Amino acid sequence: MLILVGAFIVLASTLGGFMLAGGQPLVLLHVSEFVVILGVALGVLIIASPGHVLKEILHKTKSAITGKAATREEYTELLKLLYEIFMVGRRNGLIALEEHVMEPQKSSIFQRYPSILKHHERLEFLCNGLKPVIDGKIKPDQLEELMQAELMAKAKEAEHPVHILHLVGDSLPGIGIVAAVLGIINTMAAISEGPEKVGEKVAAALTGTLLGIFVAYGFVNPLANRVQFNNASDELCFKCIKQAVAGFAKGLAPLTAVEIARRSLDSSVQPGGAELEAAVKNLGTAK
């Protein structure tokens, strides 16, 4: 919701300052300028983006506006889940994890953590990391490299919408100039209609330049940065899973593997060591 608060402040400050200086907001409303600038910006977006990236931009934008990054409570839940899984594997053998990893939606362990189940990518990353451990197809030292490769691929893919949004944001001032030039052309064509008409058309042309710069630096580029921060939050979650699973595969005790994962987190979302130990102390090891 903070992104909506910020957008309101940007809009209110701009219009408020303009009105305090004696301006009339309706003077800024020129539909033709909106059509040129927003239409060209949309065209740039479509030209620059493959279909799957367009869908991802919509998804990331929606998440930035309505969603939020993983919280400290969610990370605590993730670490508790990892601890339970590792305890089952240690006490009952790695083969006991198969029923939980192959069908996590039906797993008695995963069902206790709905915040993990609802995030398909995190769930898939965790299960993909655990499957080689169960199968024993690769050595423990190789697992971390395998998960790191997947993590890097996810990080690179997540950056595509950010690059496109920055491209659109950087293009908008130039698009605003195009709209202004079109307005000046119209002004020159109407110069015989008198000063009042010329002044109106020049104002409309200048509005195009204003709108391009305003939308770029007030909305599009900040939105791209917010998407980038959300990507970093997702990457941190994947890194946490990787650290824990790789540590467990190397033979570390469940609590030690989870502690390594905890220490890899940012301080803003990192649960305390004593807090985590108390949280996992009485956890069951249901199959």
Question: What's the structural blueprint in terms of helices and strands?
Answer:
Layout: H1 2-20, H2 31-48, H3 51-66, H4 72-92, H5 98-102, H6 114-117, H7 120-135, H8 140-189, H9 195-249, H10 254-263, H11 273-281
For the secondary structure, the number of strands is 0
Can you tell me the overall shape? elongated
Mean pLDDT: 88
Quaternary assembly: single chain
Indicate how many domains the architecture comprises: 1
Reported for the largest beta sheet, the result is: none
> What percent of the residues sit in helical stretches (DSSP H or I)?
over 70%
**Alpha carbon gap, first and last residue:** 39 Å
**Secondary-structure element order, N to C:** HHHHHHHHHHH
Beta-strand residue percentage = under 5%
Structural class: mainly alpha
What value does the Rg take, in angstroms? Answer: 26 Å
